[in-house]
Specification:
Helices cover 36% and strands 10% of the residues. By secondary structure, it is of the alpha/beta class. Strand 3, helix 4 and strand 4 form a beta-alpha-beta unit.
Length: 261
Amino acid sequence: MKFHEMTSPRLAVVDRDQTVVVIPIAAVEQHGPHMPTGTDAILCGAVAEAVETRLSERVLLTPTFWLGASAHHLRLGSTLDCKLGTYVATLCDIARSLLGDGYQRLLFLNGHGGNIDPMRVAIRTIQPAYPNALLAAGSYWCAADPLLNETLAGDHKFVGHACEFETSLMLHVRPELVEDDRRADAGELVPDQIDGLFLSRDMRQRTREGFTGRPDLASAEKGRRLFEGVVDQVVCMVETLLTQPLGTEYQQFVPDDKPGT
């Protein structure tokens, strides 16, 4: 089910309890010299669409929210940004619109690293007012570490920026948008963590040309394997959310006959 393709009478009869509303959130920002600025929105949207296709009776998919928290890319140009406070407030407003309409299970499916902290703050902000709802947030790759380890060839076995992972996915999803002759080794990535401390460094400080890892090692075949594996994992996550109890008290989540209760 796609929210933006349905009439209000059809939406009115959607089961509010046994449906997960999937809200893809992403960004439009520079992605180095070889990838389109809309990479995050294109990839996150593609994953979300594939999940909805697999679970069309249990998932209600909203349009992809393409604007992200991207201030750390601004000094490189070609970036559209939303201030953190505005971004958190906007996510809260989207969620409240759906919760106020009776939907009980919401998932912010993220496609941009800069959105991770704000989306968590957003659902923590609204949860006290809706304790009976299930509010979830995660990046579409959040359970993909084993898949990345076995598929990626470069030393960066993680999701970076316009990296081997994202470039492979784009070569599978929208290959015409990748400029192959500009793919290269990104060189050393300046860390944003030292001794467990987070360091606030922007992409101009951390990268040579605004991208990371080894996009030169990306391929459409890797992208196909990664895309299919990621979609499988997100489908499993949504199915898990559908099995979670809704409630406001501890006893509603832990059966009375469970050991230790």
